[in-house]
Amino acid sequence: MTAGPIITPGDDRPGSLWRDAWRRLRRNRLAVAGLVILALLVLVAAFGPWLTPYDFLSQNLDARNLPPSMAHPFGTDDLGRDVLSRVIYGARTAFLVAVLVTAVALLIGVVLGAIAGFYGGAFDKGLMWVTDMTMSVPQLLLVVVINASLKQPITLWMEARYLETLNPIYRNSAIIDFVLVFGSMALISWPPYARLVRAQVLSIRNRPYVTAARALGLTNRIILTRYVLPNAAGPLIVAVSAGLGTAMVLESAFSFLGIGVNPPTPSWGNMISDGLRVWTNYPHLLLAPAAVLAVVTVAFNFLGDGLNDALNPKGQK
Amino acid sequence: MSATLLSIRDLRKEFPVRLGAFGERAATVHALDGFSVDIVEGETLSLVGESGCGKSTTGYCVLNIQRPTSGSVIYAGTDIAKLDDDGMRPFRRDLQIVFQDPYSTLNPRMTIGDALAEPILFHGLAPKAEIRDRLRQLLADVGLSERFANRYPHELSGGQRQRVAIARALACRPRFIVCDEAISALDVSVQAQILNLLLDLQEKYGLTYLFIAHDLAVVRHISDRVGVMYLGRMAELARAEALFARPLHPYTRALLSAVPSTDPRAARNRQRLQGEVPSPLSPPSGCRFHTRCPLARDRCRSEAPALREVAEGQSVACHAVASATETNWENSPA
């Protein structure tokens, strides 16, 4: 048979690199704190309708601009609406937007970046031109321009569809806002992901284990999906964590400027904008949404830093 | 003598080096320049030479992992050097490779079991139901317990990883394996284990090896034939005993005299080479060795010597060597 005795593995810590990373992440207190805050917020956003004591739309003009109390922990706004309920619904908006925008941007970025990095050539050059151009224009400006130029054609098209089908869904202008604002946010958010994936793929595609996979005769598709992309995932996960936070802040920024979510749909951005006008008299209207936004942003940063340390430990390839 | 497994003819590999903003062709690296050899079924053919002499490029080009610039590699009646990825796929099963660095040749995100099962399933060599048995057998072949199947590469030592890499090459039941410096990165004690493993597997499965190495002691121990390469060309090709007993090419002599002796009292009659290996970007004209050769004549500077058989199973590319006994090496100026 073969030379020497059969070797059996010594029983040290078993597990994949992912499990090792999770172990490192759990030891990082700030990252765990960020994770807990975000998990709570996701739960609150998901179960919002069952948690909120009041409807976020119902006005009570007898109870306007009330300071925080037992009945209204965050007080009420100038239309007598419960601020806590609106903050919770704002979390729904923020998470929905952040997840959708990031998912779309990630999908576009991974597919384009992986193809560009793996195959190179003219497609790669063209893609890099597009990403350079997109990233060189201020995001806010770009979104405003895309919005301004697309809003009218889309509105007209929706109107035409409504007259054709009489389906009330085409009458819902909130949908237009959502699609437009967050479509354009996704359109400007994918280039960083594409660049990151491309850079990762470029560095991984010449690693010996990829050459070894070629020597086995495996197809490009298998090599890309099973050898290259899993090894590119670490930095991508960090980028997604940061990207979710950025998308939330961006959504609030657009809503603050009045080009994002339109009232009466609550968004932290438009709540801050409303609160800012009256903050000397009713500071709780500004503080409640602003504090929540700040906490969420910080939580994403803690988690992102922790993920970065956990997935790219020093001294490990 | 058995049949020829691979017939390699005039294999060349050039790497264009592009410089400048518009990628204009600036220079060409002549990594492999007219390499020819017949690899006989069941033998171990070793290639030795200094770093950058084209040993590894030869291995990659023979397997068409790097596309040769020209030349042919005939395997089973087909010139595989001309095939593209799709055309090459059915041949990959028979022609495998073990790489130098076991730390980077295994996908860190894949368990050993998955890594070994992939080529078997991909080439349809065994149904899914039999995979477990195949894995157990493959791991046993390379001296590893079945329990390694659930492990990840980073949990294994270098020697264990190289055993896995060998098992992976064996997974397709190949006929020919290129061992590209397959033991160079390992500890000396582990080197011996892996070497013995390779020899046992050769016996068991009738494998043919192209063994690329720079350790002459190892090469002497395991090779049937040895090829000495210098700057992308074969300098000398001979049966291992003959080469070590009676090296004929001046470069081979210098290379062998550089091997340290275990006897401290042995007379040291070293042939020292002057200077550095010339750049493969602009290789010397004529015989590529003439810039460092103590025998160099005018003819060597202009005319490249062909590889000629000068004795039974011993070929040399040198103008100074007429036959195994007739060289002007001895009467050269020291």
UniProtKB/TrEMBL annotation, chain A:
Family matches, as SUPFAM superfamilies: MetI-like
Superkingdom classification of source: Bacteria
Pfam families: BPD_transp_1, OppC_N
Residue stretches in coiled coil: none
UniProt KW keywords: Cell membrane, Membrane, Peptide transport, Protein transport, Transmembrane, Transmembrane helix, Transport
UniProt-listed GO biological process terms: peptide transport; protein transport; transmembrane transport
Location(s), subcellular: Cell membrane
Alphabetical list of InterPro entries matching this protein: BP-dependent_transpt_permease (IPR050366), MetI-like (IPR000515), MetI-like_sf (IPR035906), OppC_N (IPR025966)
GO cellular component, one term: plasma membrane
Residues annotated as transmembrane: 30-51, 94-119, 126-149, 169-190, 236-261, 281-304
Membrane protein topology class: Multi-pass membrane protein
Residue ranges occupied by any ABC transmembrane type-1 domain in the UniProt entry: 91-304
Family, as annotated: Belongs to the binding-protein-dependent transport system permease family.
Protein name as it appears in the record: ABC transporter permease
Highest classification ranks of the organism: Bacteria, Pseudomonadati, Pseudomonadota, Alphaproteobacteria, Rhodobacterales
From TrEMBL, chain B:
Segments for region (Disordered): 263-282
InterPro entries per the UniProt record, alphabetical: AAA+_ATPase, ABC_transp_ATP-bind, ABC_transporter-like_ATP-bd, ABC_transporter-like_CS, Oligopep_ABC_C, P-loop_NTPase
PROSITE patterns referenced in this protein's UniProt entry, alphabetically: ABC_TRANSPORTER_1, ABC_TRANSPORTER_2
Stored Pfam families: ABC_tran, oligo_HPY
Keyword terms, alphabetized: ATP-binding, Nucleotide-binding, Transport
Gene3D superfamilies the record matches: P-loop containing nucleotide triphosphate hydrolases
Gene Ontology biological-process entries: peptide transport; transmembrane transport
Domain of life: Bacteria
Coiled coil stretches, renumbered: none
Record's bilayer topology term: Peripheral membrane protein
GO cellular component assignments: plasma membrane
Domain ABC transporter: 6-256
Compartmental location: Cell inner membrane
GO molecular function: ATP binding; ATP hydrolysis activity
Family: Belongs to the ABC transporter superfamily.
Protein's UniProt name: Dipeptide ABC transporter ATP-binding protein
Natural source organism: Paragemmobacter kunshanensis
